[in-house]
Amino acid sequence: MHDCIISACRSAGFSPHIEMESPQISSGVNMAAAGFGVAIIRESVGQVRAERVSYHRLSDEGLHTAIALVTRPREKSVTVRNLVTLACVK
User: Fold this and answer.
1) Cα–Cα distance for residue pair 84/7, rounded to 1 Å
2) Where are the domains of the chain?
3) Distances (CA, A) of 89 to 64, 66, 67, 73, 74
């Protein structure tokens, strides 16, 4: 996600000045609330509510990232195996 964000910023004509990076995505929300600047997060993290924070949707042009589904190697649950079959592109 980092490379995607930096690339999108450069495409928009600027390079961000990064002072800090948060180890967890959701901690970026708390860092912004504490006044450390802004955080660029996945839209789904916008469900995390914090005082003194507002969310703004960005243009999605060029801002795409891959996700992964993690399961156990010998999963026994039929439901989980069906989900993997439906969700995964091979």
Assistant:
1) 31
2) 2-87
3) 17, 12, 12, 17, 19
**23-32, 56-65, 77-86: segment of lowest average pLDDT:** 56-65
pTM of the model: 0.60
Least confident among 62-66, 79-83, 85-89: 62-66
CA pair distance 9, 55, nearest whole angstrom: 18
Token couple for 73 = 């190697």
CA geometry: angle 64, 66, 71, nearest 5 deg: 155
